[in-house]
Amino acid sequence: MGNKRLYRTEGPYKMLCGVCGGIAEYFDIDPTLVRVGWVIAFFCASVGFWAYLICALIMPKKSDIYPDY
User: What is the pLDDT of residues 52-61, one digit of tens each?
Assistant: First the structure.
């Protein structure tokens, strides 16, 4: 699988905190699909809100992992 790291994106895929964009880059899928999944999870007893908040606080930014970015 190589040297993949999970991070928050800072480029054009960032909307709020970059969590969905980072997850999409990690799994190599469209960020829109990840965002739709978060919205669905949000409306399921607001699990998506808490999961997004925790990820936004814990996940490092892309520039922290890859300084040349």
Answer: 889 999 999 8
In a domain, 34, yes or no: yes
Report yes or no on 6 lying in a domain: no
- Would 26 be classed as within a structural domain? yes
What distances in angstroms separate CA 64 from CA 5, 11, 24, 38, 60, one per listed residue? 11, 14, 18, 24, 6
How far does Cα 28 stand from its chain's mean position?
A: 12
Give the number of domains in the chain: 1
Model pTM?
0.79
- Cα–Cα distances (Å) from 62 to 6, 8, 18, 43, 69, in that order, read 8, 6, 9, 28, 7
